[in-house]
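User: For this week's homework, look closely at the record that follows, marking any run of repeated tokens, and judge whether sequence predicts the tokens.
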Amino acid sequence: MTVFTGCDCDNLMRSQFYVILCSLVPISALLLTSDADALQVIGGSVTAVQGGTAILPCYVIDTNDDLTQISWQRKTREKPRNDNFLTILPREGAQFVNGDDDRFKYIGNFNDKNGTLQLSNVALKDEGSYTCIFTFFPSGNQKTDIPLKLFVPPFTSVKDNLPTLGTEEVLFATCTAAGSKPPAEVRWLTGALGDKVKTTTNSTQYDNDTTTTVSSLFGVPTREINGHQVQCVISGDSLSKEETLPFTIQVYFSPTEVNIKKISEDSFECVTEANPNAKFTWSRSGQPLPQPGVKVEGAKLQLLSLTSDLNGLYRCEASNTYGKKHGQLYVHVVSVGASAAAWALFGVLLSLNVVGAAVWYFYKLQSGGQP
């Protein structure tokens, strides 16, 4: 057994006290480190559609430290420098810093250590990084970054290039997805047309990271291709579903040869092909239309009473924005004697290079020589 002197005893006590202090410090530091390691600030990246609502999640788990304040910072397209814009205090609640922005709404709960924000009417200027900062006692500040990415749906349209009849390849139409982020895909569905048409696609990117994509439809403008249905299909991450824009290929041309055909005993119709549809005008050469002897409705001419004052050369003009042509109808009423009252009618159709003409003779049969 070892015996210590008074002096040695004092040294031993001092040594033991030192050992005790040295052993306590690492244990305390270990406890603080363990609590800080357990604490987690939960956030995450967010994607929103322009004009919609974004939820910026931020909350803390696994800590018993006292929360004294929640702060929000942002670095966005509009504010490229780090900007303190919102502080949340236990009693005062949410308070804006450096100017209000009522689109932000605090939807978390301070007591639950939840700093989540809601941002309504999201715009491209809001895209960037948001930082949520929790101030705890005694562990200090804990934070996380929340990237906000914006999708911008395109403005879509199909434009007719108004091609006219011809034999050379021309542009029929363009389909546009304008101002999309990320870029939209634009394609044509042409069905049975096959290799009678072809497409090209071009894109233009702007400084704000939006892109305009244009797909063009080409072909030879013939009458056979006129009226065919095609579709422009637009798709992309910024759209919840594909958008389909139907389009009817239009080949525009002036009225073709104008013919006048009989549709009843006393009615005639002016017939032609045109795109857009022709408008019809009836007139009588050298004199006005006999009223009330005739009735005109668009392309149709009806003779209401067969008398000699209807005699003359009638002209039907078909016109649209691309040109005009006409056809002619000659009417001649002849009186003859007969034992019974009746009407007789026959016609001879004359074919001309440019103008369709018809000559119609109306024979008025008389009874007892009376008209």
Notes: Residues 66 and 81 are 30 Å apart (CA to CA). Residues 1-34, 337-357, 363-371 have pLDDT under 50 and may be disordered.
